[in-house]
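Task card 7
Instruction: Convert sequence to structure tokens.
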Amino acid sequence: MASLSTDVPRQTPVRAYLILATGVAAVTLAAIFIKLAQAQGVPSLFIAAARLAIAAVILTPITLRRHWRDIRGLKRRDLMLALLAGFFLALHFATWIQSFEYTTVLVSVVLVTTSPLWIAIAEITLLRAKLGGLLIIGLVIGITGSMIVAIPPDGIIELGNAPLTGSLLALTGGIMVAAYLLIGRSLRTHLPLLPYIWLVYSCAALILMIFVELSGISIVGYPAESYLWLLALALIPQLIGHTSFNYALRYFSATYTSISIELEPVLSAIIAYFLFSEIPNTLQIIGSGIILVGVTLASLAQARSSN
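Output:
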């Protein structure tokens, strides 16, 4: 992956920031939809596969109608990288969603959102990218805030019924999404959005459906409500959320894009307050504020680099 480009365009349009913010808001709902589907007895692997399969099916007629020439004209290298991104995306969802069965949502989210750290390390060591000091400071502050949010109010850590397994799955999910974003950053500088996400989502969906088949998991027989949550998961966090991130990768570094996703725990807490009357504790409020500071610093660094 040493040949992947991380150059950032000189001028970043305002719409790129707005679309990235929309994506962050959309993926915030993912954990809620996943937990609601799991409560209906839907296996985690099928949730991951359905999320991507539905998105791919919706994108197929639109993409083939508008971008058939772009798809036929893809270079072999670009096609292979897009399929590789799909492979990493499939592993991300397979491991992260599965981690909910073994550990708490909070621990899982904190570990999966360590992706900015892995991206920064890869961009510096493998891609020879030079990250500004302010961006690195924002990265460290954002991850610190996430760790504070994860601290239980009573000081007793309840990690679930298989903490090591759950933590390893979530951490693997964070590493996989880092690889997915890095590849996307390289391709989105010259590849149109729709062909890219169609290839990636379709490849990931195919891989996960193969896993579902090999695991002997049924795709029918679940309550009707569960399929509505799967549809919502595909439409909002996937088609709106992840597609917004892939759009933003044309203008932002993978590190900055992933740092922005650190806002997810903050927005999740706000949604939980209104939907479930869950009042955040003092540490969660402090941690959320620290995350906002980290993202703000990273945003300032991004704005300076694009001027």
